[in-house]
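Lab notebook, design round three. We kept the backbone fixed and only want residue identities now. Task for the bench partner: fill in a sequence for the structure below.
Input structure tokens:
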């Protein structure tokens, strides 16, 4: 069972105490934005050390903030005396575990009330296992307090001590007092982090960084050199006719999971999903000094994707009823990378003849029954792995283009 929520009597009382005076400088530092620290873990570490130095005997402090992210529901930072802060991210699946369902922080979220647990008393039979872990560390007193954000959402921070008699009333009041400016600072950090999360999820890490840096006006774009990746699922229309919509969504997500981690691991950036298509780029130095290495990384990602799709086919054969196949075209060229769209609605993407060519090459891959196909501009940097397939007329281009495929692909 979850721990009890007993509102401590001290909360809401503001008695002036010498301890409050000693930590006023810490509170002012928080109000000023904790300018001497850049990240939340650094802020929490300095805050805890400063409170200890001024007479608040802390042993363990945990801060828990919910966020907006497709994979994670929140962040946790845990400080222990004499150690660096440990930062963790909680996946959405964690909310179904016993550790979360029996945690005092969940009760804090539900009630919005502080929770205090004196650990010098014998444990109740239904005490949370978390408190048993604190007892094993020698913790004597535990206080969890809501961090209330201005949008009404509740987050939390917990304070623990090893002092034989636990926290004094003055120390509890000091912790309550310091929590308020900390909540404002945590909200600012969270909003920034959430903005970054959303941009990373929807436009990609590099594009998100550019947007947050102010590159948001329509027409703001840069010419860059890049290896371009464009993939497309074969038989998607037939698949969507045969399978229920929810199953199609599941299949698409699994299919993109075969590609996205492989692309990111090799330094690529996924720009957009177009139904069953995926567009990604791998940036190349302006002087082409790293072009061979970049193209090799792209091929590594391509081979990993092929293996992942094979594994998906083996696992989902019964549901798919036929082998899922895809085509992937690769090219190297100059693209215009930036904000393109209509007034008030923009897309951060890349355009140019190089993108048009890779889209046409993907159609050639379908004609040839090939999975991976590349232009001559790409293949020349991976000659040992690519074989010439011949010249092909490409829509929109006056001169036929030479296409290359993997030597080991039949």
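Proposed sequence:
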């Amino acid at each position: 069972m979850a721990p009890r929520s007993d509102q401590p009597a001290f909360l809401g009382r503001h008695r002036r105490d010498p301890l409050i005076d000693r930590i006023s400088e810490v509170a002012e530092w928080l109000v000023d934005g904790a300018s001497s620290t850049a990240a939340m873990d650094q802020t929490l570490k300095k805050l805890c050390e400063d409170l200890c130095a001024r007479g608040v005997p802390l042993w363990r402090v945990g801060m828990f903030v919910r966020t907006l992210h497709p994979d994670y529901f929140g962040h946790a930072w845990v400080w222990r005396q004499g150690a660096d802060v440990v930062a963790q991210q909680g996946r959405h699946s964690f909310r179904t575990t016993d550790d979360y369902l029996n945690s005092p922080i969940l009760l804090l979220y539900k009630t919005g009330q502080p929770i205090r647990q004196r650990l010098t008393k014998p444990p109740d039979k239904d005490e949370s296992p978390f408190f048993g872990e604190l007892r094993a560390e020698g913790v004597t007193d535990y206080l969890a307090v809501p961090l209330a954000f201005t949008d009404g959402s509740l987050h939390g921070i917990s304070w623990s001590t090893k002092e034989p008699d636990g926290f004094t009333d003055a120390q509890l009041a000091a912790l309550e007092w310091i929590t308020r400016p900390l909540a404002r600072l945590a909200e600012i950090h969270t909003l920034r982090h959430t903005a970054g999360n959303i941009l990373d999820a929807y436009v990609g890490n590099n594009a998100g960084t550019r947007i947050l840096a102010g590159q948001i006006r329509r027409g703001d774009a840069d010419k860059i050199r890049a290896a371009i990746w464009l993939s497309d699922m074969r038989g998607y229309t037939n698949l969507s006719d045969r399978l229920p919509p929810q199953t199609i969504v599941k299949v698409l997500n699994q299919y993109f999971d075969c590609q996205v981690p492989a692309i990111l691991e090799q330094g690529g950036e996924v720009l957009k999903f177009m139904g069953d298509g995926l567009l990604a780029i791998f940036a190349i130095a302006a002087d082409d000094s790293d072009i061979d290495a970049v193209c090799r990384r792209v091929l590594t990602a391509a081979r990993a994707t092929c293996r992942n799709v094979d594994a998906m086919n083996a696992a989902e054969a019964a549901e798919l009823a036929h082998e899922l196949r895809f085509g992937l075209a690769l090219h190297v060229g100059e693209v215009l990378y930036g904000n393109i769209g209509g007034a008030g609605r923009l897309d951060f993407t890349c355009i140019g003849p190089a993108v048009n060519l890779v889209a046409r090459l993907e159609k050639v891959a379908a004609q040839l029954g090939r999975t991976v196909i590349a232009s001559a501009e790409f293949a020349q940097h991976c000659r040992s792995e690519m074989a010439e397939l011949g010249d092909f007329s490409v829509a929109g281009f006056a001169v036929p283009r030479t296409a290359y495929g993997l030597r080991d692909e039949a």
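Keep this in mind before ordering anything: The chain is about 40% helix and 25% strand.
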